[in-house]
Amino acid sequence: MLALVLFIITLALVITQPRGLGIGWSALGGAVAALLCGVITLQDIPVVWHIVWDATFTFVALIIISLILDEAGFFQWCALHVARWGRGRGALLFPLVVLMGAAMAALFANDGAALLLTPIVMALSERLRLQRAAALAFIMATGFVADTTSLPLVISNLVNIVSAGFFNVPFGAYAAAMVPVDMVALGATMGVLWLCWRKHIPATYRLAHLPSPASAMRDEGVFKAAFPLLGLVLTAYFITAPFHVPVCVVSGLAALALTLVAWRGGKVPVRLLLAKAPWQIVLFSLGMYLVVYGLRNAGLTGELATLLAWLGQHGALAATMGTGFLAAVMSSLMNNMPSTLVGALAIQQTPGLSAPVHDMMVYANVIGCDLGPKFTPVGSLATLLWLHVLASRDVRISWWDYMKAGFVMTPPVLAAALLALRWWVPLVR
User: Fold this and answer.
1) Single GO molecular-function term (predicted)?
2) ∠ at Cα 197 (178, 336), nearest 5°?
3) Which one, of 416, 426, 429, lies nearest residue 149 by Cα?
């Protein structure tokens, strides 16, 4: 009970961040309290650090890359091209924006996609002179697709990185299993978003007030480096995986290379961007996961393992759907980052699982923790930050309105992704 109370208090502090504490210091404070209360021990610290360090520094590197590209105008350039590809037809522009969000989530993680693309889409809506309801449709689509299509690669979500590292899933093996599943999730997302927002999407829009994509380019050197660097990095992930090179090494070298290019060009405020990088995520990952490890020490994951064992006895379909929806519910209630470790520890402790069912549960836990946060605003930090970005631009979405949309749109996408997982994974084993 003490471990659970400490977790709830820590999560509340992370969400509210009183007096500007930030997510890092809030989580670290909870970890110190857990240590002082005997919920965790000093011996747990290196165990948890071993779980989170690669994911944490990979995330920081990806955000640095995203911030530099954004400051250079790369994403605005992409958005302006997408608007022109829409040819003035709203029914074509809407899926193109969703596809752009899915591509950003795959390469730059869901947080980068939600936080960087949202203001760009808002600015694009203003330039196209869309009505408020139409602009809101594009904004909601951007926020939703950032999470629902963050499945394909290990780097696409912090959840994926933690899970792949915990279970020693190679980059290539993960992609082979999850890229087809992500395609299904993307199709389901596109369909759900269209059904929910089609009445608000304009039939046509004017391109006359749209600037040329070239006008968005603020650093030509960064632009010239962007596509070759992204291609090289993506290739390096697959090549280095068999040699057990940490993902953060590849991401870190890419961030360093792009930083040097931007520094040399002198048009991107590199020092300012490095200061804006999410360094507190290092403290958050260690602190929050130490608090979660206290739940493991208190026996919570053991109880969850009993439930997973029962699901495993009822076949692969029950194990996949049950694990995925259980992870989704936990993520929506207690945030997806702690839920990821709770689910992973429980799967690790579950006795009597066959290898196929074990693999299904591992991937289903990832899907549930990637998609489950869309049920509630507290499900992921990316959603809370996304709502903050909207509020700073006088677009306010209440928690109740968000949850109404989340409960309508999330279940079909989650179910489609889990069914695709059940069908596909046995074929790639």
Assistant:
1) antimonite secondary active transmembrane transporter activity
2) 40
3) 416
Give residue-wise pLDDT tens across range 139-184. 889 888 988 999 999 999 989 999 999 999 999 999 999 999 999 9
CB 139 within 8 A of CB 115: no
Q: Which is nearest to 390 in space by CA: 111, 98, 118, 116?
A: 118
pLDDT digits (tens, 9 = 90+) for 256-290: 999 999 998 888 888 888 887 778 778 888 888 89
Quote the tokens at residue 425. 């994974």
Q: Which residues face 89 on adjacent strands?
A: 204
CA pair distance 118, 410, nearest whole angstrom: 20
Confidence of residue 92 (pLDDT cuts 50, 70, 90): very high
pTM of the complete model:
0.90
- Taking 70 as the threshold, does the pLDDT of residue 20 lie above it? no
d(CA 69, CA 259): 10
pLDDT at 429: 59
CA distances from 346 to 46, 216, 303, 342 (A): 20, 48, 8, 6
What does 405-419 look like in DSSP terms, one character per residue? HHHHHHHHHHHHHHH
Distance of alpha carbon 291 from its chain centroid, rounded?
21
Q: What is the DSSP letter of 210?
A: P
pLDDT tens for 349-374 read 998 888 889 999 999 999 999 998 88
Given a contact cutoff of 8 angstroms between Cβ atoms, the answer to whether 94 and 141 are in contact is yes
**What is the amino acid identity at position 182?**
D
From CA 337, how far away is CA 381, in angstroms rounded?
Answer: 9
